[in-house]
Design a protein that fits this description.
Layout (H helix, E strand, L loop, with lengths): L2 E7 L6 H9 L3 E5 L8 H22 L3 E7 L1 H4 L13 E3 L2 E3 L9 H18 L5 E5 L18 H19 L4 E6 L15 E5 L16 H13 L9 E4 L4 H4 L13 H13 L4 E5 L5 H7 L4 H14 L1
Helix pairs in contact: 1-10, 4-5, 8-10
The structure holds zinc ion (ZN).
Zinc ion (ZN) binds next to loops.
Length: 318
């Protein structure tokens, strides 16, 4: 039996998602906030939780739907206001220190601050699930180029940050686990080892979403397929997670309203899901952004029962 999940935007988190989650067959709903670097999106999400979302979360929990958070959190974990006093906490780009993205992973104080603030963020989020998804900044070229870091690939820098985050959340909850997100420029096989409790989350955003990921004519998809197989030599497949874009209406709408109708065919979702499950991956999720009241007004209810049916078919054959 596969674990299914959807990741929606905090802005789309409305009571209707209780029924939609049941229709989709999911037991876990992730809340995400689109994070433009410099926007302090985590503070904004925490404000929204405290204003009016906490009671809604309880209603989901009463319906056996667990809420967790999937967040580009580095900006919150290493406040950029520290730059004026301690520029070496931050990354070097073209010979200059910058507080635009992420950090210098060779600076032990930077990792210690990230670790301590991961503890604080876990405490503030108060989620039931042991799985945490604190991601680095949402950027393709966001890592450090200083003399100490330049030999470390984006994936290795990502792993060092994730290990520091895990240390912090484990101080809050000794059973916590932390996602290592294979995404954006962190698409190499890391040589830095994941600490015990770090699991793979694979998000193939740049693939062609209109062809199955196994399509032999799609170079980017083929690269993702090869990378995933390599990553599964490091991370146990049963603990690994896929984060797909099947219902990421924001992506298909160019991140602008109005939302377009969910565009993907069930054949593509079935083919992708079949491939992922053939690798032994048990947890498969998709973004499901921009699905809210306005989407329903324009397009009717989202076809989330398809998601459930795909996995019912896979489970019935396994
Ligand atoms: Zn550095």
């Amino acid at each position: 039996m596969k674990n299914l999940g959807l990741v929606i935007l905090i802005e789309d988190f409305i009571p209707e998602w209780i029924e939609w989650s049941k229709k989709a067959g999911i037991a876990t709903l992730g809340l995400h906030k689109i994070a433009i670097p410099g926007s302090d999106s985590v503070s904004d999400l925490l404000r929204q939780l405290d204003n009016d979302k906490r009671s809604l979360i309880s209603r989901f929990q009463d319906n056996a739907i667990s809420i967790q958070y999937e967040l580009h959190a580095l900006e919150w974990l290493l406040p950029r206001s520290l730059f004026s006093d301690k520029p070496k906490l931050f990354r070097e780009k073209e010979g200059k220190r910058n507080n635009d993205l992420n950090c210098c992973v060779s600076n032990s104080e930077a990792l210690e601050i990230i670790s301590q603030n991961s503890y604080t963020l876990a405490k503030l989020l108060k989620q039931e699930s042991f799985d945490y998804f604190f991601w680095t900044d949402d950027a393709f070229d966001g890592f450090c180029e200083c003399d100490m870091c330049s030999s470390l690939s984006p994936s290795d820098q990502n792993m060092l940050i994730v290990n520091a985050m895990l240390k912090g959340v484990r101080a809050y909850n000794s059973k916590a686990r932390m996602s290592y997100l294979a995404y954006a420029s962190a698409l190499q096989v890391p040589t830095v080892k994941p600490d015990d409790g770090v699991f793979l989350e694979f998000a193939p955003m740049d693939r062609n979403h209109f062809k199955p990921i196994t399509d032999q004519n799609e170079e980017k998809s083929q690269n993702y397929v090869s990378l995933l197989k390599e990553l599964l030599k490091i991370f146990p497949s049963c603990d690994s997670q896929i984060l797909e874009y099947w219902y990421d209406i924001a992506l298909y709408s160019g991140y602008k309203y109005p939302p377009v109708k969910a565009p993907l065919s069930i054949d593509i979702i079935s083919a992708d899901a079949g491939f992922y499950t053939s690798l032994g991956i048990d947890t498969i999720k998709s973004f499901a952004s921009y699905i809210s009241s306005e989407y329903c007004k324009l397009h009717g209810e989202p076809p989330l029962d398809e998601f459930n049916n795909v996995f019912k078919n896979i489970n019935s054959k396994s």
